[in-house]
Amino acid sequence: MEMKVETDWIELWQGSHGFKNVPHKHEDWMQVTLPIKGTVHFTQEERSYGLKQGNGLLQPPGTEHHFYLGEQSSVIIVKVRERGAGGMEAIQPQFMAGEGQDIRQEFHAGDMVGRFRQWMMALIEGQALADPIAVQEVEQDVVAYLGGMLKLGRKELLPTGVSDPHIRRALAYLHDCYDDTINIDELAGIALQSRYHFVRSFREATGTTPYQYLLKLRITEAMNRLRRTDATIGQISVDLGFSSTSQFHRAFLKMTGVTPQVYRQQ
C-alpha cells in the first residue's frame, strides 16, 4: 500500500512491505527516509543500510539511492526542496543538506506516525478546499520538523589542529561509520600508513587511541539516543556496534560515571 501527497515545496509518502524501487536521485529535493516498522533495506551511493524502526537516513539532493521493504515493514519518506522561500533554505540561509549534519538521524517512530497522519489530513483538506494557507502551514511545519531533527543529529566536529590529511580522512571515516565494525588495518589503509605508524600518528594528532576515540563517538551518540528516542538499551548497544550489552554498560559507565539506565532517568 502506498500513500502520497505533494505540494510545491514538500512531498509526503508512506509505503509498506513488498515495495521496491530502482536506483534514482532527486536533484532539487532533500529526502529523509524514516522507517516506522520493521526493516528498510536501503542502498545509498553504493553503501547498504539495514534501517530499523526509529533509524532514519538523510538523502541530500543528487544522492543516488534505492530500497526495498522487508516483511511487515513500513516507511515514511519526507521530501523538502532545498532551495527557495518554502524550502530548507527558509530556516537556514545557504543550507546544504549533508553539510554539518549526520546522514543518520534518530527519531521517535510513534511521534512521526502521528505527525504524518496530521500532515496528510491537513494537506488533503487544504487542497480539496483550495486553501493555500492551510497547505502552507503544513509545509512550514514539515520544514521546521526536519530542521529540528537535523540540528539534533548534528555530527561532532573533527578535532581541530589535525593537519595530516591522511589522519583527517581516517577521522572522517570514523565519524561517518562509527556504528559499523571497524578495525585498525582498515583505518591504517585509509591513512596510507602501516598499522604501527597509524596508531602512533593518530595518538599524536588526537591525544587518544583509535579505539578510545571510537568509543567516545559511540557513547556520545548513545547519550543522544537515550534522551531523544524510545529505543531499548539493548537495541542501542547493537545499533552502535557494541559486541554485547554488558560491553556497552561498562564503556558507558566508565565514560560518564553512570549507567545507561540512570542516565536515561536523569
TrEMBL record:
It comes from the Bacteria. InterPro entries: AraC_XylS_family_regulators, Homeodomain-like_sf, HTH-like, HTH_AraC, HTH_AraC-typ_CS, RmlC-like_jellyroll, Tscrpt_reg_AraC-type_HTH. Pfam families: HTH_18. SUPFAM superfamilies: Homeodomain-like (SSF46689), Regulatory protein AraC (SSF51215). Keywords: Activator, DNA-binding, Transcription, Transcription regulation. SMART domains: HTH_ARAC. Coiled coil: none annotated. Residues 168-266 form the HTH araC/xylS-type domain. The keyword Oxidoreductase does not apply. One of its GO terms (molecular function) is sequence-specific DNA binding. PANTHER family: HTH-TYPE TRANSCRIPTIONAL ACTIVATOR RHAS-RELATED. This is AraC-type DNA-binding protein.
